[in-house]
Write a structure and sequence with these properties.
With 478 residues, the protein is of the alpha/beta class. 41% of the residues lie in helices and 13% in strands. It has 16 helices and 16 strands. It has a seven-stranded mixed beta sheet with strand order 4-12-11-10-9-5-6, sandwiched between helices. Strands 13-14-16 form a three-stranded antiparallel beta sheet, covered by helices on one side. A two-stranded antiparallel ribbon has the order 1-2. α1 crosses α3, α2 packs across α3 and α8 packs parallel to α13.
């Protein structure tokens, strides 16, 4: 809203009308928490006293109510006032929902990614210029192969796609029949299906610390508990699994062994074998999240855990999103047939299957070699981008931070030497148009870390962002 400073209507009245309009059109429903007075004043470019006066007027009207420590919330709407009855408290329903909301900082990141000209220095996806848009358009318009049906697919996913995934997996040493593969709408859905379909409420997920899973609430919303285990340069350290299982009871292990998110660590072959043996010994199911496998830069990755699993203990997750397009929303789960059958049933109850059109496109990309060809191109470009960001870090942050050179994936796990409040750094950077991913999103103790991505921002944006970061670290680290 732009306030009319030349109007005869006082500014505080214009602010009150602005808030009232949001309430009457249902955007701020009863129970909603209003922006703070300071934030609203900044957004509307007025003094805080102007917003305070508007809040006082709306409080007198019975529309809003402020509580110490609880902010200001909508307690009524104009229709409710007219009818002299208490309206439905949608806020209470929202708070009571089983699925937990994202962390506030994650919600801010998700919204800020769509701000024009924002520099996304932590984004875990490819830059638009690395997505094979023209090839995909040609596929849809010129291909002699056409989708067999645009109706619902069978429970486990389109058979042609599962056959192509089976061929692809064999190249990576994983022997999986199409009947042992479930097509899902991305790896995140795979995790959600596992959490509600295979685990009892109150079960424990044993995982690396830090981990991507700490930044989302898929498992926690299903009543799961997290127990972080330490990592070293070789990855997940499984020597404590026996002790932790005795302590927590029912549990499952989750790991990202290749180009770990957020640290970029690659689990050594000896450590992979050690982890498999420990899980088999303790009868602990293991989820292998391998969505970054094809993003190797220096040399092809080590064998997947699933490829050396001889007991069927590993549930394997893969995806095409990191290479082709995050919008395609195609991933897969590989596991024992009873498990896949169970998850397929739950998926059908959830969404009646992934997009038929996306499945057809994914199958064609695998069948025609588009996926393999584009994987090679992406790896070449990521090497150039990684080396450019490493060069910038050396030029501008070598006296302020530490990092390791990743051998693949999207990320550099940067440790800042000065002790800085990560939330202050995040907010100050955002004010200057730089979107960061602080380490506390992946481990509350990783307060000195940032997850930097070389996959999305342009070379010019990387340099601009690193310069801003240097200045902020110098300023805030005093």
């Amino acid at each position: 809203m732009i306030l009319d400073r030349g109007s005869s209507v006082p500014l505080h009245q214009q602010v009150a009308e602005y808030i009232t309009s949001h309430i009457t059109n249902g955007e701020w429903v009863t129970g909603s928490r209003l922006p703070s007075q300071r934030k609203l004043a900044d957004q509307l470019h007025v003094n805080r006293s102007t917003v305070t006066a508007a809040f006082e007027e709306l409080t007198a009207q019975g529309l809003i109510e402020g509580k110490r420590g609880g902010g200001t919330r909508v307690v009524n709407n104009t229709w409710g006032l007219m009818a002299k009855r208490k309206p439905a408290d949608w806020g209470a329903y929202v708070e009571a929902g089983q699925f937990k909301p994202n962390l506030p900082m994650i919600r801010t990141i998700n919204e800020a990614e769509f701000i024009p000209d924002i520099i996304r220095l932590g984004t875990g996806e490819l830059s638009p210029d690395l997505i094979p848009s023209e090839k995909l358009i040609h596929l849809f318009t010129k291909s002699s192969f056409k989708p067999r049906s645009l109706g619902y697919s069978e429970p486990k996913g389109d058979l042609q796609l599962r056959e192509q995934i089976s061929y692809y997996l064999k190249k990576n040493g994983i022997n999986a029949e199409p009947s042992s593969i479930l097509v899902v709408s991305g790896a995140l859905q795979a995790l959600q299906l596992i959490s509600i379909g295979l685990l009892d409420r109150g079960s424990t997920v044993l995982l690396e610390k830090p981990s991507y899973l700490y930044s989302i609430h898929v498992f926690q919303s299903s009543g799961m508990r997290f127990y972080g285990l330490p990592m070293d340069s070789e990855g997940f350290m499984p020597d404590q699994l026996s002790e932790f299982k005795k302590e927590v009871g029912s549990a499952i292990v989750y790991t990202i062994p290749s180009f770990h998110n957020p640290t970029g660590t690659v689990m050594s072959l000896s450590r992979r074998k050690e982890l498999l043996f420990a899980c088999e010994r303790e009868r602990l199911p293991l989820i292998e999240d391998d969505v970054y496998r094809d993003l190797w830069i220096e040399t092809p990755p080590l064998p997947a855990l699933k490829s050396i699993d001889h007991s069927g203990n590993v549930l394997y997750i893969g995806s095409m999103s990191k290479i082709l397009s995050p919008g395609l929303r195609i991933g897969w789960i590989v596991g024992a047939k009873p498990v896949i059958n169970r998850l397929a049933d739950i998926k059908m109850q959830s969404d009646y299957g992934s997009s038929s059109l996306s499945q057809w496109a994914a199958a064609e990309c695998l069948r025609t070699g588009i996926y393999e060809e584009h994987s090679s191109y992406v790896r070449d470009r990521l090497k150039i981008r990684r080396d450019h960001l490493l060069s910038l870090l050396t030029n501008y942050l070598k006296d302020l931070a530490e990092w390791h050179k990743p051998s693949g994936g999207f990320y550099i796990w940067l440790k800042l030497n000065p002790v800085i409040d990560p939330r202050v750094l995040f907010e100050r950077a955002l004010q200057q148009g730089i979107l960061l991913n602080p380490g506390v999103l992946y481990d509350r103790n990783a307060r000195q870390y940032l997850r930097l991505s070389y996959a999305y921002a342009s070379f010019q944006e990387m340099e601009q962002a690193i310069l801003v970061l240097r200045n902020l670290v110098l300023e805030l680290g005093r």
